[in-house]
Amino acid sequence: xxxxxxxxxxxxxxxxxxxxxxxxxxxxxxxxxxxxxxxxxxxxxxxxxxxxxxxxxxxxxxxxxxxxxxxxxxxxxxxxxxxxxxxxxxxxxxxxxxxxxxxxxxxxxxxxxxxxxxxxxxxxxxxxxxxxxxxxxxxxxxxxxxxxxxxxxxxxxxxxxxxxxxxxxxxxxxxxxxxxxxxxxxxxxxxxxxxxxxxxxxxxxxxxxxxxxxxxxxxxxxxxxxxxxxxxxxxxxxxxxxxxxxxxxxxxxxxxxxxx
Length: 260
Fold this sequence. Notes:
CATH superfamily: Gcn5-related N-acetyltransferase (GNAT)
CATH topology: Aminopeptidase
Oligomer: single chain
Shape: globular
Radius of gyration: 19 Å
Helix content: 25-40%
CATH class: Alpha Beta
Structural class: alpha+beta
CATH architecture: 3-Layer(aba) Sandwich
Number of strands: 9
Order of helices and strands: EEHEHEHHEEHHEHEHE
Number of helices: 8
Strand content: 25-35%
Number of domains: 1
């Protein structure tokens, strides 16, 4: 071993809790993302850790997203490419999550710090999201019957689980009860994953999936969408996000220290 890198979980996959927040402290925590006091970065740097990679989050709201641009791009791609799409089948959630992982592992294989997600880990993810997942916010794309891409947005359970400190207290029981009552009315969402098999990139498939998810969001109660975690050097994705109306609002950092 030559270096100590972190903080983080199993890999640098964007669905896992990792890195420390270094900008955006005034905003509420989002599901499965770290949220720490500002002084954490000072402690790590004084000890000898240095930045190795940053991740960013961008925020969209239903009134500020460039919807017409997304729709035009999607129509252009549909005219030149025969793509079939569908929403997630909630009745077979574990099988659907394993399909997501199959696409995700293939799509992310060459990304910085990535290690493949195991099928059993996918089952655990499915169980953890079962209460809040909205099938209309997860879209698959197929060409000639082959799954080539997936995009997933998750309603943020933190909207209900966040402590509110009323006079009667805010126990785990109260917070879970609040989640059960709110789970179909959660206004905030997180764009949690996007995976496209390498051989089908640069064809515009994400525009189709994005258009379908935006249309679904606008037909429902959702108000805001966070796109995260975005690698700081993913220039193509960041350019698209900004063009569609996303604004930067949070940043996380992964540190590294050589082992001598």
